[in-house]
Amino acid sequence: MAVRVGRQAEAAAPAHRRPAADAAGPGTSVDDTTWSADPYSRALRTGRGPLFLRRADGWLLLLELERWCADADEADLEVLRRCEGAVLDVGCGPGRLVAALNARGWPVLGIDVSEAAVARTVALGGQALRRSVFESVPGGGRWGTALLVDGNIGIGGDPHALLTRMAELLAPGGLLIAETVGDPDLDERVRVHVTDARGSAGTPFPWARLGTPALLRHADRAGWRAVDQWAAGGRCFVALRSRSTNSTAEPPNSAAVSSSQRAAKPSGDRPVARA
């Protein structure tokens, strides 16, 4: 059954808290307000960085904010050409992929826990909902394609849990396209926070960064099979399909759009010198 993506606003979902295995340790949780507060939301409103992820040891990862806020580039378009059916962009950020698909008449919904990200997506004419991927998502179990680009395989700091959840959201045989980092040996679960050049810092949260071999290992354990992998524009991607059928489909919601998933979107693997 097709997923209908509606055009009416839905009230913002409450902030979602979920245990963060591995990265944060037992009993800790992810606070989605991390991505709704400055400096991330301020940077999204202006469309300008620099913005970084910072580990406790001072290591910095430059976030490609200007690229996220620009139009979809050739590497993005290669991803979009592979999409099938209705598309769910998980951690849609400022909405370039949602906008590009929408302009082509493709049914697409972005979800993000950042109110600023959702607002920017809607301003581009896309449809987006302030929602964590681990909450109830409209059309759950019926999406044809789901996207985890710009590093969003790191959401929650637990790749296995995220991959399991993605299988629940997709229709049986649905397609998951995930972006990985260029370092093939990387399989990292850490706590980070968002910071800007002025030193303003958000709340620490768990994150994961995976090279393609690591993602394939996690995917195999979570019941996925790899159907393709490619590189474009200096970025790496993997396409996966679930080996199992989905019996947890949620009814589509025709009133599932904007209002205000977590999604600063750490992408690539371009570390900046320790501060």
UniProtKB/TrEMBL annotation:
Residues 1-14 have a biased composition (Low complexity). InterPro entries: SAM-dependent_MTases_sf (IPR029063). It comes from the Bacteria. Residues 243-262 have a biased composition (Polar residues). Residues 1-36, 243-275 are annotated as: Disordered. CDD domains: AdoMet_MTases (cd02440). This is Uncharacterized protein. It comes from Streptomyces lincolnensis. The lineage of its organism: Bacteria, Bacillati, Actinomycetota, Actinomycetes, Kitasatosporales.
